[in-house]
Design a protein that fits this description.
The chain has a five-stranded parallel beta sheet with strand order 3-2-1-4-5, with helices on both faces. The longest helix is centred in the middle third of the chain and has 17 residues, at about 90-110. It is globular. The chain has one domain (about 5-125): Rossmann fold (3-Layer(aba) Sandwich). By secondary structure, the chain is an alpha/beta fold. Helices cover about 45% and strands about 20% of the residues. The chain has six helices and five strands, in the order E-H-E-H-E-H-E-H-E-H-H. The protein has helices spanning about 15-25, 45-60, 75-80, 90-110, 130-135, 150-160, and strands at about 5-10, 30-35, 65-70, 85-90, 115-120. About 30% of the residues are buried. Strand 1, helix 1 (about 15-25) and strand 2 form a beta-alpha-beta unit. The mean pLDDT is about 95. The structure holds adenosine-5'-diphosphate.
Length: about 160
């Protein structure tokens, strides 16, 4: 069985991520979207919040499950027996970092291959950082994130600004 994992921060999930999830779910028998709990970045959303949002937007995709992990992606891949690691490529700026990471993971987890899906052009500009920035200043993010997620992001900034 071809089992793939799509690891990332998903802070928050965007339509760019969603496009990669849908396309990868058609290529593999089983796809796990895994939230990386990365201690070097201070996230906007907790791991649980990000997992909940992903579960909500992936509910209609029967072969997609959502998980989270910390530590090395390669260790998580070996432990769970994934054959492939999915990553998205938007522009050349992604390429150098992604290539380096893919080659490192290939050394650490030789049984798994990194599979790159190039972004659908309408999402090429889209990143979680952009979404956070636009939302912080109250701009319209409804065309950047899956339905219902915009409200959760606005609420989060409302709470933060109250403090
Ligand atoms: P990370 O912190 O691991 O880069 P992200 O959540 O920002 O996590 O991204 C996860 C993966 O999704 C990365 O491979 C990234 O290149 C890809 N990605 C992000 N936005 C898009 C997009 N708009 N189109 C295609 N791939 C994307």
């Amino acid at each position: 069985m071809a089992k793939a994992v799509y690891p990332g921060s998903f802070d928050p999930i965007t339509l760019g991520h969603m496009d990669v999830i849908k396309r990868a779910s058609e290529l593999f028998d089983e796809l796990t979207v895994a939230v990386l709990n990365n201690s070097t970045k201070t996230p906007l959303f907790s791991v649980d919040e990000r997992v909940n949002m992903l579960q909500e937007v992936c509910a209609d995709l029967p072969n997609v499950r959502v998980d989270h992990f910390s530590g090395l992606t390669a260790d998580y891949v070996i432990k769970n027996g994934f054959n492939s690691i999915i990553r998205g490529l938007r522009a050349v700026t992604d390429f150098e970092y992604e290539l380096q990471m893919a080659q490192t993971n290939r050394k650490l987890a030789p049984r798994a291959d990194t599979v790159f899906l190039t972004t659908s052009l309408e999402y090429a500009y889209l990143s979680s950082t952009t979404v956070r920035e636009v939302a912080y200043y109250g701009g319209d993010i409804s065309r950047f994130v899956p339905e219902g997620i915009d409200k959760i992001i606005y609420e989060k900034y409302k709470d933060i600004k109250k403090k």
